[in-house]
Write a structure and sequence with these properties.
Blueprint lengths: L17 E3 L6 E3 L15 E2 L22 H7 L8 E2 L25 H11 L18 H5 L3 E3 L16 E8 L19 E9 L6 E5 L5 E4 L2 E4 L5 E4 L2 E5 L11 H12 L5 E5 L1 H10 L3 E5 L3 E3 L4 E3 L2 E5 L2 H8 L9 H19 L2 H4 L2 H14 L1 E3 L5 H11 L7 E5 L2 E3 L9 E3 L3 H10 L8 H15 L10 E6 L6 H13 L3 E7 L8 E4 L4 H11 L6 E3 L10 E5 L21 E2 L8
Parallel strand pairs: 4-17, 5-18, 6-13, 8-19, 22-23, 22-26, 24-25
Antiparallel strand pairs: 1-2, 2-3, 6-7, 7-8, 9-12, 10-11, 13-18, 14-17, 15-16, 19-27, 20-21, 24-26
Helix pairs in contact: 5-6, 5-9
Length: 588
């Protein structure tokens, strides 16, 4: 008996809406929930589980085998409204409509209620390459059987999904060529590298997210890492210094846990979970949603990736979707950094498509999406089941698309190479971005966060403030302006009357943000200095032990310092290229 027959019409379990048809051996969607009609189905068949496939995405080697005239013709089918489709027009099959169900229903649920139910049961982990679309109307055992998992030990925060804390998910795309039709791309015998890497940082309040791409050719250090062997034993893989980031996976027996460790050392952020996808993920997931809208600033015919599209908007799926995320020769300087921008455009478009009514109201698309996503994913064992992925998806659907920001870790050409091929972290902009992520600062202006920041600022300045003559502070320069420490001391003494301020020259290391460290018994001095300088609440770093004698507070000027007397208060900003998931842009 289903949920409706039990008298719980408003609490139907998604799994109850699929029944096994004994005549065909397939699962079918049941839209009529009356007890007497339980054997009827909509005719939407759930695909049977197929075997597992390989593990991820890109590479520039030539594909062996001709594309064929038929393949070219299939990409040139015009779609409605003048937009060209790379794989044919996208339309909704008759079985996608509840009205075409063979079973009769007692009544139609109100539209708002139906959509709300679809939003959580079909709740999508909104970014596809990164994503697990924890699909609507789930057949739990069917989808659980699709998933592959890796035991990463005690890494990350296993309870972070529902905890009152930020969430960091590492999405890895490997260039391993396993899977049907992928053997001809480049090195078919490769064990795979971490070629596409996106650290998806979800804010503590779940209002915003930052998706930061990490270039595969970034020179970095890979730390020692513990791996679980097939027999259950542990093996430590020795670390290596000054090597490409993409060797953090696959090489020397490294597993995704090693890539997680490398990201933590590089960014200072603890990675809670990972998701790994392969070439098939791009092909199957783009097809499952009926195609992904992309845009090119100029026509592209790339013999390496086999991308062949005109200038302007196109809709890609399958092989052409894979070609789009693989190509780099299509862009201005043919670099991996340009390819990353194309991938970010693709993922942003996928997010919009997955959240569209066209997907959310289509049982067929939801099932195909969930089935394809779970087959395409390898995840850590802590989230290696459909219920756990569903819980994660529900958290991610809280984020408004306009508050998902794509960025790339700031890098510069490797100065150690006469003709740079690799890159190194930008010593100025990279710490700024990473500090913002570490402090859970949104790259978009979120109203709730803006209000919370004002409240914290008001609370900071509430209380007694010391007289200027009683404020004692040592000033260090950790920013980019030469002589900033002396400039600040001159301003404090001459304009503000803080005579007990001292120039301590350069800070031990560069600082992205200005900070003020003080003891509990210096709180009144800290409030006074914060008001003078316009310091935000995030700059205040109270200690736990009282100051002794003539001990001074420590003011470290960071990259956000613009000049003595210029308030630092305000939303954190950084001058780097950014893209929003809710806006379509043409790749150049």
């Amino acid at each position: 008996m289903d949920a409706q027959g039990r008298g719980r019409a408003e609490e139907i379990d998604p799994a109850d809406q699929w029944v096994l048809n004994p005549d065909t051996g397939d699962y079918e969607l049941r839209l009529n929930h009356s007890g007497g009609d339980s054997g009827r189905a909509s005719g939407v068949s759930a695909p049977r589980s197929s075997g597992r496939r390989g593990a991820v995405r890109e590479g520039d080697g030539e594909r062996r085998g001709a594309t064929g005239e038929g393949a070219r013709r299939s990409r040139e089918v015009p779609r409605q409204g003048g937009r060209r489709s790379a794989s044919g027009p996208r339309g909704q099959a008759p079985s996608d409509s509840a009205e075409n169900s063979t079973g009769r229903r007692k009544r139609k649920a109100p539209k708002a209620r139906r959509k709300k139910a679809l939003l959580w049961t079909g709740g999508v982990m909104a970014f596809l390459l990164v994503g697990v679309s924890a699909g609507g109307y789930m057949l739990y055992q069917h989808f659980n059987g699709n998933l592959s998992t890796v035991d990463i030990g005690d890494r990350g925060n296993k309870d972070v999904i529902t905890a009152n804390a930020p969430l960091n998910i590492l999405v890895i795309g490997t260039d391993k060529r396993t899977g049907k039709g992928n053997e001809g791309y480049g090195d078919s015998g490769s064990v795979g590298h971490a070629d596409t890497n996106i650290l998806f940082h979800v804010s503590k309040d779940r209002t915003n997210a930052t998706a930061m791409s990490i270039p595969r050719d970034l020179m970095t250090n890979i730390p020692d890492c513990r791996t679980k062997q097939e027999d259950g034993s542990e093996k430590t893989i020795p670390g290596t210094q000054n090597v490409r980031f993409n060797t953090s996976l696959g090489q020397d027996g490294r597993d995704p846990g090693c890539t997680m460790d490398t990201v933590k050392e590089l960014t200072g952020l603890t990675v809670d979970h990972f998701m790994m996808v392969d070439f098939n993920a791009v092909k199957e997931l783009s097809t499952a949603v009926g195609g992904v809208d992309i845009c090119l600033a100029h026509a592209v015919k790339d013999e390496k990736s086999h991308l062949d599209l005109p200038a302007g908007p196109s809709t890609v799926q399958g092989e052409q979707a894979l070609a789009f995320v693989r190509t780099r020769h299509a862009y201005a300087n043919g670099s991996d950094l340009d390819r990353i921008k194309g991938q970010q455009q693709f993922i942003g478009s996928m997010i919009r498509q997955m959240k569209s009514d066209d997907t959310l109201t289509s049982p067929t698309k939801l099932f195909k999406l969930a089935d394809s996503a779970t087959k395409a994913l390898t995840v850590d064992s802590a989230i290696g089941s459909v219920p756990k992925l569903s819980k994660l998806a529900k958290e991610l659907t809280k984020i408004d698309t306009k508050n998902i920001t794509f960025v790339t870790l700031p890098v510069i050409d490797n100065p150690a190479e006469p003709t740079p091929i690799t890159v190194v972290v930008d010593p100025v902009k990279s710490p700024q971005l990473l500090t913002m992520m570490q402090e859970d600062t949104s790259l978009t202006e979120v109203a709730a966060q803006k209000k919370a920041a004002k409240s914290k600022q008001d609370a900071l300045l509430k209380g007694t403030k010391a007289a200027a003559a009683d404020v004692r502070v040592d000033v260090y320069n950790g920013g980019e302006i030469g002589g900033a420490a002396q400039q600040t001391v001159n301003w404090l003494q001459n304009d503000e009357g803080v005579l007990k301020s001292t120039n301590k020259a350069n800070a031990p290391a560069k600082a992205a943000k200005t900070t003020l460290e003080y003891a509990p018994n210096q709180a009144d001095q800290a409030r006074a200095l914060a008001e003078m300088m316009g310091l935000p609440a995030s700059a205040m770093k109270p200690g736990t032990k009282d100051a002794v004698g003539l001990q001074a507070m420590v003011l470290t000027l960071g990259a956000d310092f613009k000049g003595a007397g210029t308030p630092i208060t305000g939303p954190a900003k950084i001058d780097i290229p950014k893209a929003s998931a809710d806006k379509a842009e043409c790749a150049k």
